[in-house]
Write a structure and sequence with these properties.
The chain has about 170 residues and is an alpha+beta fold. Helices cover about 25% and strands about 25% of the residues. It folds into 2 domains: about 5-65 and about 140-160, no CATH class; about 70-130, DNA Binding (I), subunit A, CATH 1.10.30.50. It has a 4-stranded mixed β-sheet, sandwiched between helices. It has a two-stranded antiparallel ribbon with strand order 5-6. Strand 3 and strand 4 form a beta hairpin.
């Protein structure tokens, strides 16, 4: 509950920060409050301020690459720290769905989290050949999906900025 969605000047999502950081940005007049948490206040000795939930930066911040970097850490995060073959969460590694020896590339759609047991069982074979199936197909997460995964929080007041389709439905 102590995270704040930070929007760029054009209302596109930038990141998530702490309430303290959001308050500092507003206090220094670098950001505006867009949405606050009802029935919560930030208090000082003599004042009270709205408890921020969504803020907007006053000056546009150009971000040259707004994608998710493919790394072991981010693949584990995308897959929820679970083997994509059996669902276990222990002794994890990375597996190429289509083995490299068979032309498989190191891409978001070909790498999954796997436990060492399933990785050894699959070895250098196609899934069908060893009778294994993926729990869900590997996909490249969008920046917004990754933002939600990293925060572990999703608030209804964030919906218009993270899910424009959901908010208009």
């Amino acid at each position: 509950m102590n995270t704040v969605l930070v929007l760029n000047q054009d209302y596109s999502p930038l990141t998530v920060c702490s309430v303290q950081r959001a308050f500092l940005l507003m206090f220094l007049k670098k950001a505006d409050l867009i949405s606050g948490v009802e029935n919560r206040q930030l208090r000082s000795v003599s004042d009270s301020f709205p408890f921020p939930s969504v803020i907007k930066i006053k000056y546009y911040i150009s971000i040259p690459y707004k994608g998710v970097v493919m790394s072991r850490h981010n693949i584990f995060k995308r897959d929820g720290g679970r083997c994509q073959y059996c669902g276990t969460s222990g002794d994890l590694t990375i597996d190429h769905v289509i083995p490299r020896s068979k032309g498989g590339k190191s891409t978001w759609t070909n790498l999954v989290t796997a436990c060492k047991t399933c990785n050894s069982k699959k070895s250098d074979y196609a899934l069908e050949k060893v009778g294994m199936k993926l729990l869900k197909p590997p996909v490249k997460p969008s920046y917004l999906t990754f933002l939600k995964m990293n925060t572990g929080v999703y608030r209804d007041e964030w919906a218009p900025f993270l899910n424009p389709k959901r908010a208009s439905a």
